[in-house]
Known about the structure:
The structure is a single chain. This protein is mainly α. It folds into two domains: 28-187, Tetracycline Repressor, domain 2, CATH 1.10.357; 188-321. The protein is 68% helix and 0% strand. It has helices at 3-13, 31-38, 52-56, 63-90, 92-95, 105-108, 113-134, 137-155, 163-183, 189-213, 230-253, 266-287, 293-299, 301-319. The longest helix has 28 residues, at 63-90. The chain is globular and about 60 Å long.
Amino acid sequence: MTDTAVTDTAVLRQRPPEQEREPVPPRAGGVLAGLLRTARPRQWIKNVLVAAAPAAAGELFSVPALGRLALVFVLFTACAAAVYLVNDARDAEADRAHPVKRHRPVAAGQVPVPLAYAVGGVLGVLAPVAAAWLCPPPVAGLLTAYLVMQLAYCVSLKHVLVVDLAVVTTGFLMRAMIGGLALGIPLSRWFLITTGFGALFMVAAKRYSEAVQMAGKEGATRALLTEYTTGYLRFVWQLAAGVAVLGYCLWAMEEGGVPHTSVLPWRQLSMIAFVLAVLRYAVFADRGTAGEPEDVVLRDRALALIGVVWLAMYGLAVANW
């Protein structure tokens, strides 16, 4: 075992003196506000991935396409909200031992556990039924598979080593695929590789950050963290980042990838911004502060600027292809 692995393992095993748990302060708003917070509005940004495949194919900006994608976005958000409600209801007791999660409405007592189950169940039924009625069969099938997989994750899969990483990563990949299915767009192999391993990079970095921040008391909040070492999780996010970058670069440099209607090779130039974005995010992953990916993306100005530059270059590459 290397010195790094020993050090990383020690970080997990150290157990600081027990501290008395502080009471959870009351939250503003009533039950409806608590239900909305439990649905994680800040994380709805993940569902923007439904536009990824149409954007990559240059078929995003048309009224019919935008209408279908808006519908898919709403349905996916409803499914995700159902999963969050059920998850928080099941984990209410464990969340009360977490320094951040104890402020969640269900854990704090603002939303009763039975109500969280009931609302989650209603959303979990209505969303797939609406998808079967309003969307093509592949979309309805993928949405139903996502819901079943995520509920299985809440019940048992999040306690299975490595499988938990695969399930969360697959959830991101399904978001990226469903937009293409809704519009009948073939999904590129490079798109799937880059999206899948990019998602694994963020998921593993999140777990690594949780392991670092909860060293010594991780079993009270996410028991599976005791099965991982920070060295292993670091290896996973580094491996995933490398494959995501490789997949993107192969797409940008593949034969025939030079645009014919533009002076500058935007497709190739976009590699620079993509790599910089991965490297910038890796700074927070390495520090163990990537526990909330949406906070990292939205609050870091440099990363946001790099992201805007990448989007501009990528858009020009698709427009001129």
